[in-house]
Amino acid sequence: MTDQSLTRVDRDKEDKNMDKSNLSESVIFPKGEELPELFSKYFSGKAWLSMLVDRDNEFNCPIGNVTFEPGCRNNWHKHPGGQILLVTGGCGYYQEEGKPAQELNPGDVVLIAPNVKHWHGAAPDSWFVHLSVETNVNAGPAEWLEPVTDEEYSNL
């Protein structure tokens, strides 16, 4: 991950000490519904999605609130148009292929360039919530790849 792809904001002491163990009802936006089979097959563990801006919206910028249970992560994948993650709760990880995983906390912003192989998900002991902003959606849908192995995940 390049220095420009992860932006951190200063958080006050209360935010840093926020209870990350139970964000099961999400943080700011609705938790949504458990992922349907169409998407859940690309996740290890349970995740929920609430679409805030639909795919067919005139703004051409789908935005979803994604909530991961502790230990849940998605498969390696690529977005041909790129993706932006806005972390709103809990503790999670983001990793690009060939680079070390980066811990994510509320206020972090991850800019994922088009076609970069990556994964993201919750820490083993924390719920994790982020907004997923799909950019340049006309470039095509996400390409889902192999699962993140337990060995890869345990090496965080």
Describe the structure.
With 156 residues, the chain is mostly beta strands. It has one domain: Sandwich (Jelly Rolls), CATH 2.60.120. It contains three helices and 14 strands. The chain has helices at residues 13-16, 37-40, 150-154, and strands at residues 6-7, 33-34, 43-44, 47-53, 63-68, 73-74, 77-78, 83-90, 92-96, 102-104, 109-112, 118-122, 128-134, 143-144. The strands form four sheets. It has a seven-stranded antiparallel β-sheet with strand order 1-11-8-13-5-4-2, with no helix packed on it. It has a three-stranded antiparallel β-sheet with strand order 10-9-12, with no helix packed on it. It has a two-stranded antiparallel ribbon with strand order 3-6. The protein is globular. It starts with 5 loop residues before the first strand and ends with a helix. Mean pLDDT is 88; it is low at 9-18.
Overview features:
single chain, 14 strands, 8% helix, 156 residues, three-stranded antiparallel beta sheet, mainly beta, Jelly Rolls
Strand percentage lies at 35-45%
Query: How far apart are the termini?
Result: 15 Å
User: What is the CATH level 1 assignment?
Assistant: Mainly Beta
Tally of individual domains: 1
| CATH homology superfamily | Jelly Rolls
Q: Work out the number of β strands.
A: 14
Helix content: under 10%
Strand order of the main beta sheet, please?
1-11-8-13-5-4-2
Oligomer: single chain
The CATH architecture category equals Sandwich
Strand count, sense and closure of the main sheet? 7 strands, antiparallel
Write the element-wise H/E pattern from the N-terminal end onward. EHEHEEEEEEEEEEEEH
CATH topology: Jelly Rolls
Mean pLDDT value: 88
Q: Compute the gyration radius: what is it?
A: 14 Å
Overall form: globular
Query: How many helices in DSSP terms?
Result: 3
Structural class: mainly beta
Sequence stretches where pLDDT stays below 50 over 5 or more residues: 9-18
